[in-house]
Each structure stands twice: as structure tokens, then as C-alpha cells.
Amino acid sequence: MANDPSKITLLQVVNALDDDAKDTTRTRRKDRADASMVQGIKQAYDLILTGYDAYFDSITLQMLLDASQDESMGKELLAGRLIAESQRLLAEAAAAA
Fold first, then answer.
1. pLDDT for 37-86, tens place per residue?
2. Which pTM value belongs to this model?
């Protein structure tokens, strides 16, 4: 946290706090990787994680600090980031297809 808040994303904070839990989850997923039903669930979960990571990586601590000064601004910021990242992910998927 020694960096400027405008350079630290929410995803970096969450990952720093959640590394152990992610390692445990990855280990459990590897243990169940061969089950056919689990493959569909894994694909859906991976899609959720991709969206989650993109969204959180688009928000800096400075954005949150600025948004905390005005509740309506905060909601607009968070909703706007969600829309922008959703559109970016859709565009990437279309380009890859």
C-alpha cells in the first residue's frame, strides 16, 4: 500500500487479501477437474472470475476515495465501470470468435 492510490486497483487489494483462499480453491478445482458435470460449472465459474477480475482491476483506490465523497457519484462510478468492462469483455470475445 506504499503506492499512490491512483495506481492501486481494487483487484490488487482483493488479491493481496485473498491469495490463500484462491490457492485453496484452485487445489480443490484441480482435484475435481475430471468430473464431467464439474467441467460445465468450472467454465461458468471461470467466466465469473474473468468478469470479477476485469471489473475490480478497472477501479483504483483513488476512484473509491473520490467516489466516497458523494454517494450518487459512487454509484455512477461503479455502475459505469461495470458497463465499460462488460462491453470490453464482449468485444474481446467477438474478436476472438
1. 567 777 887 888 888 899 999 999 998 888 888 888 888 888 999 999 99
2. 0.64
Cα 86–Cα 88–Cα 92 angle in degrees, nearest 5: 115
Sequence-separated contacts (24+) of 63-68 with Cβ below 8 Å: 63/6, 64/10, 65/5
Largest Cα separation within the chain, whole Å, is 49
Distance CA 54, CA 38 (A): 24
* Alpha helix ranges (H) inside the chain: 10-31, 36-57, 61-67, 71-96
Evaluate whether 42 touches 33 at the Cβ level (below 8 Å): yes
Position 58: which residue type?
S
